[in-house]
Amino acid sequence: MVEAYMARARSFIKEAARVRNLTSIHHDPDYVPHGPIYRNANAFHRSYLEMEKLFKIYVYQEGEPPMFHNGPCKSIYSSEGRFIHEVEKGKLYTTQDPDEALVYFLPFSVAMLVRYLYESESLKTDAIGRIVIDYIHVISGKYPYWNRSVGADHFMLSCHDWSIRVLCNANTSEGFNPAKDASFPEINLLKGEADIGGLPPSRRSILAFFAGHLHGYIRYLLLNEWKDKNDPDVQVYDQLPKGVSYMSKLKNSRFCLCPSGYEVASPRIVEAIYAECVPVLIPDGYVAPFSDVLNWKSFSVQIAVKDIPNIKEILMGISQRQYLRMQRRVKQVQRHFVVNPTPKRYDVFHMINHSIWLRRLNVHIQDFGVP
């Protein structure tokens, strides 16, 4: 029965993908996806509506906090913790009947495993691997679901660097496979809430901004090239001057530089979106969050590592008209990255679930839209 429902959903989504309008034709009281921020607005909308009807997650109850059924909610790894806590509430998408589930959640927090088991002095991760293997042995011996699919319909969530993996650190050079793995945003909520909004475009006096410590070779190249230039247009710091607010700089910038660190993901991407600043991705093998449905080219700039010396020239070459279009689209796409105390339709919690839903369906919306 589950497979029949999924087959019908696939058919509906593929049929919807034939409509190439920039606006979905489906009715929705809350939000109708529209515009070039989507690869195919109609296919995404139909897929999302089908997910709301059919998607069911079974959360294994085995394991004890703090490493299971728990995660950080006020840290750079808050995406991981917030998702775990929402799923554990059992109000959205979850089922108590494993036979009706489409996917099965392995409820360990990699951030918490690292906190309690990682041996920083020796850099050993053996204990983390053992506890994960032991957990799979327990659930595969107690339930038929892992062995039935060899774990293909099971998923885990991790912001650190099997089954469906939902990762912040979506690095293709380290085995990330967009066909079965999902990239989700790294969101730094040190205060527990997002600071959303910024100055209007006409009042943003900084062309491009970055502040961050040396962390990986891309940041080294960026800091080495721009930190000591004292260019008022491209402001790059390893440490902000005393009394200068990081958030005020973001909100006063037209473009926000988001270089990868030791890991390819960066919370600066979401920080830029929250500040309504156009993100400038400087990645190395990074698959951007929700890129199976979002057209990142429409609301962000991607600069190759080799072009770091040319950042100012590249950004100055973007016309005012094009910048204003991109900035409006950043404000539109914001809803998909917002963390709400109680999840709202189309927010980041629902978008993470939608990414998992697509991989369980084995449907690639990006094939239906822009390249």
From TrEMBL:
One of its GO terms (cellular component) is Golgi membrane. It is found in: Golgi apparatus membrane. It holds the Pfam family Exostosin_GT47. It is a single-pass type II membrane protein. Residues 52-316 form the Exostosin GT47 domain. GO terms for molecular function: glycosyltransferase activity. It comes from the Eukaryota. Keywords: Glycosyltransferase, Golgi apparatus, Signal-anchor, Transferase, Transmembrane. Belongs to the glycosyltransferase 47 family. Its main location: Golgi. This is Exostosin GT47 domain-containing protein. It comes from Gossypium mustelinum. InterPro entries: Exostosin, Exostosin_GT47.
